[in-house]
């Protein structure tokens, strides 16, 4: 499918007069339409809730949009919990799916009433010691091991993943938790990442539902919710077919009817923790081409770098690039599009066929709305960019300012840095 930016060259020419590149821009209209579709796709389940994976895009303005469609927050750290609390979310609207969790983070999660999703069997004891007693509602992350396959091949390798309880640990854990007073149980699993197929959630759901039925029969645990977590993917490359959330929701409904309903578990709530699917396509990284270098290859140097978008550098991930204003020009130039880090993997694209790029051209790097700005770091002393919301009426709102040197140096107060820098 042709990838078209959600913003035009004319709009960007206006925006850059106020907000210099690089920046991430998000599409309110797209976020809303998609969140509405997710809500509709699972409306057959009375208790359905999407807990947006805050780690993907921890911006309260964007999360606020999702809240209009009933979404809560899935948190993995203290600061994500703090952000959710600052947004006045109720406890049951916060899922805490962490791993290798410090005691202080469990205390904080418990204090704000978040639902705790344990990553490991030993954490039952750890949590009890930390809190004095186990909360009434508790969830466990399941990892059946092995390879996760769907009809069109291997999806991922849970047997190699550090997360979750084994099957035996899950059964043993539920018995122990029940003895210790837990009343409401949840199950969670994340077995494959960025799945571009409508089969992933239904296959995962079937596996979880079957285990849930056995768990209930063997331990008597009252299973209130099953959390399918994240992993629903997006088409980063133009040749991929996007997932259809209505087909996915219907697929989950079918296995729900087949497995849970006959077992008398038709009141179980389905939860999800999607990040990428909720936000990924609705973000662009906008950068300016500032250098053209002709050596052993043709390089386009831009004013963004891996600090603004790490996925190509760490995973070799493909992100589509549009040269704004040249959408219909022939892609007859082969470029490496690179950032300014002193790291040779700081390349947004390698050997990419694009229209001829001149200094000053604006490039849109697609699908940066999730695990984009959030993954940024400060290597080489580079500063993280601004985030801007393109609103439904076409106006823009700054939803996070760009970092400044003063922010970068803030933790060097032991060196009296602000005085020395004259800030
Ligand atoms: C526990 C948990 N839930 C949800 C997500 C969101 O995943 P995705 O963005 O692929 O939907 C992640 C991603 O790392 C995760 O670790």
From TrEMBL:
Annotated ranges, domain Orn/DAP/Arg decarboxylase 2 N-terminal: 31-279
Q: Which top-level group of life is the source organism from? A: Bacteria
Quote the SUPFAM superfamilies the UniProt record gives: Alanine racemase C-terminal domain-like (SSF50621), PLP-binding barrel (SSF51419)
Write down the required cofactor(s): pyridoxal 5'-phosphate
Family annotation (Pfam families): Orn_Arg_deC_N
The reply on keyword Lyase is: yes
Keyword terms, alphabetized:
Decarboxylase, Lyase, Pyridoxal phosphate
Q: Identify the InterPro entries for this entry.
A: Ala_racemase/Decarboxylase_C, DAP_deCOOHase_LysA, De-COase2_N, Orn/DAP/Arg_de-COase, PLP-binding_barrel
Q: What is this protein called?
A: Diaminopimelate decarboxylase
Q: Which organism is it from?
A: Acetobacterium fimetarium
Q: What is the lineage of its organism?
A: Bacteria, Bacillati, Bacillota, Clostridia, Eubacteriales
């Amino acid at each position: 499918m042709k990838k078209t930016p959600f913003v035009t060259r004319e709009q960007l020419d206006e925006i850059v007069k106020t907000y210099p590149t690089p920046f991430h821009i998000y599409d309110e209209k797209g976020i809303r339409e998609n969140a509405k579709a997710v809500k509709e796709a699972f409306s057959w389940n009375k208790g359905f809730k999407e807990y947006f994976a805050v780690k993907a895009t921890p911006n309260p303005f964007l999360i606020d949009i999702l809240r209009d469609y009933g979404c809560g927050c899935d948190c993995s750290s203290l600061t994500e919990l703090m952000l959710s609390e600052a947004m006045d979310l109720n406890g049951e609207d916060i899922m805490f799916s962490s791993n290798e969790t410090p005691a202080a983070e469990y205390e904080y999660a418990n204090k704000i009433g978040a639902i705790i999703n344990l990553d490991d069997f030993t954490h039952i004891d750890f949590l009890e010691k930390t809190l004095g007693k186990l909360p009434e509602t508790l969830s466990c992350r399941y990892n059946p091991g092995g390879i996760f396959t769907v009809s069109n091949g291997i999806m991922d390798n849970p047997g190699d993943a550090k997360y979750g309880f084994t099957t035996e640990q899950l059964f043993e854990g539920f018995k122990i938790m029940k003895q210790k007073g837990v009343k409401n149980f949840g199950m969670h699993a994340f077995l494959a990442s960025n799945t571009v197929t409508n089969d992933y959630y239904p296959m995962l759901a079937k596996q979880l539902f079957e285990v849930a039925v056995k768990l209930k029969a063997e331990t008597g645990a009252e299973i209130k919710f099953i959390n399918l977590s994240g992993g629903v993917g997006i088409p980063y490359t133009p040749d991929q077919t996007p997932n259809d959330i209505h087909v996915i929701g219907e697929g989950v409904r079918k296995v729900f009817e087949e497995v849970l309903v006959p077992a008398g578990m038709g009141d179980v709530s389905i939860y999800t923790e999607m990040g990428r699917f909720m936000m990924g396509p609705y973000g662009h990284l906008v950068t300016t081409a500032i250098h053209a270098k002709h050596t052993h290859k043709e390089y386009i140097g831009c004013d963004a770098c891996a600090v603004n978008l790490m996925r190509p550098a760490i995973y070799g991930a493909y992100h589509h690039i549009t040269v704004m204003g040249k959408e219909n020009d022939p892609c007859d130039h082969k470029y490496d599009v690179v950032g300014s880090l002193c790291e040779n993997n700081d390349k947004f694209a390698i050997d990419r066929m694009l229209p001829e790029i001149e200094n000053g051209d604006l490039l849109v790097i697609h699908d940066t709305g999730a695990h984009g700005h959030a993954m940024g770091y400060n290597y080489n002393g580079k500063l993280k960019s601004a985030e801007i919301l393109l609103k439904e009426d076409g106006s823009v709102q700054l939803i996070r300012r760009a970092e400044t040197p003063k922010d970068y140096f803030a933790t060097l107060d032991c060196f009296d840095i602000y005085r020395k820098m004259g800030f």
